[in-house]
Amino acid sequence: MDEKEPVSGDTPATWAAEGVIDGWRDFADRVCAAMAWGAAQAVDMCWSDADFRHWPLGDRAVVSALQHWALTHSGRRVTVLVSDPDAMPRQHPRWMLWRRDWGHRVAVFQADEAHRADVPTVLLLGQNLGLRMLEPLRGRGVWSRDPVMLQRWRDEIDVILQRSHPALPVTTLGL
Q1: Residue 107 belongs to some domain of the structure
Q2: Which of 33, 60, 73, 121 could be a cystine partner for 133, CB 3.0 to 4.6 Å?
Q3: What letter would DSSP give residue 52?
């Protein structure tokens, strides 16, 4: 992480136009900071990952930020793209409980078999901020506030979303 880019007590609005993510802990810290900042923004969110195991979705601070975002920004949505959604309920039970109440604002999609390996690790907050992991094995990535870069990332996700299907239903139908 850049010495000029502290995460604690800092908000993405004060981050430079782009920077480096150095490790999964740094990624998790930046996701928390981005979600806290995003809670005050009227933006749609897009999350993409193979399984979300490194994301702090179950952290109280993240769920609290999502709750604030949901209550203050009606009509905004979260789109989630995942390769394998099976572990999410075990890894992030607090987020799953929050999603139960806000399922009408959160759409989860599973990539089709042919594209599961192509699902990138990306967090997008509208056209304002994005985080992307480039080296998942080492936990290295970048973040950007450049709208052109964010649109490229969004377009890449949209291609996979077009070939995906709904996943993780909020309720289970049955007898």
Answers
A1: yes
A2: 121
A3: -
